Amino acid sequence: MQYLLSASKSLADLSPQFELLTVKNQGFRKSDGGLHYPSTTLLTSFSKPTPTRPTLLQQRQVVTLFHELGHGIHSLVGRTSFASTWGTRTSKDFVEIPSKMLENWCWIPEILRSISTHYSYLSQTYTDAWVADNPSLPPPPKHLPFELAERLAATRNVNLASVTQRQLYLSKFDRRIHGASSKEEVDAMYFTEIYNSTRKDISGLCGPEVDGAGYDWGIGHTRFQHMFNGYDGGYYVYSL
């Protein structure tokens, strides 16, 4: 797509890998009753531009950007007394709700148009480059055409069932391994088998077990990165 977020022009010097993280100093209420305000930073890493084309964002990247922005806003507007409960340091039942809500803006045609700009309008260099690549075409609309925005919004639920199944089996696996009532129960767990059997039961996707290999194969659970950054026992929030 040759349309980009207006803000992405300032991201032009970032490295090719795409990732979003939130880094922040928590806020808190001072002893005099005033607020110590937090600072929130979204660290982004998008594809590098070329001399004739700026950084362009795919739809999934726009959704992720808005998702992480939801965490940033949540942190900035927090009003709790202690830093330990400020912003995203809230109950796991709620921590992803602002971000999931903000994602909705990425699927509204009017919003998609308002945050988009065809890159050829950003500078004369980009204009000249676009004309050189498309000499027989008229100038493109400055903003994403409404018809294209509507078609893009209509894809929101494509493959939603399989995505939801994945969230459910990851959530159930997370709850199963963190639901043990004793050390002995944990010691007896075989995580590979639990992961593969849970995946099969919920998604219906088959692996080598259909050939009699059992569920003792692969290392899918080791790629479950949320387990290593504070979501252990709380991944279910993505399914709410």
Q: What would you say this structure looks like, in words?
A:
The protein is of the alpha+beta class and 240 residues long. It has helices spanning 59-76, 97-103, 109-114, 124-133, 146-153, 160-177, 183-187, 191-203; strands at residues 3-5, 20-25, 28-29, 35-36, 39-44, 116-118. Strands 1-6 form a two-stranded antiparallel sheet. The protein has a two-stranded antiparallel sheet with strand order 2-5. A two-stranded antiparallel ribbon has the order 3-4. A hairpin with a 5-residue loop joins β3 and β4. α1 crosses α2 (97-103) and α6 packs antiparallel against α8. The two termini are 31 Å apart.
Short description:
The protein has 240 residues and is an alpha+beta fold. The protein has helices at residues 59-76, 97-103, 109-114, 124-133, 146-153, 160-177, 183-187, 191-203, and strands spanning 3-5, 20-25, 28-29, 35-36, 39-44, 116-118.
Report the sheet with the most strands, covering strand number, pairing sense and barrel closure: 2 strands, antiparallel
- Biggest sheet: strand arrangement: 1-6
Remind me, CATH topology of the largest domain?
Neurolysin, domain 3
Helix/sheet category: alpha+beta
The rounded distance between the terminal residues' Cα atoms is: 31 Å
Please state the average pLDDT score.
86
- Percent strand equals 5-15%
Radius of gyration: 23 Å
Q: Give the total of beta strands.
A: 6
CATH architecture of the largest domain: Orthogonal Bundle
Tertiary shape = flat
H/E element string? EEEEEHHHEHHHHH
What's the CATH class label of the largest domain? Answer: Mainly Alpha
Unreliable residue stretches = 5-19
- Amount of helix: 25-40%
- The total domain count is 2
The number of helical elements comes to 8
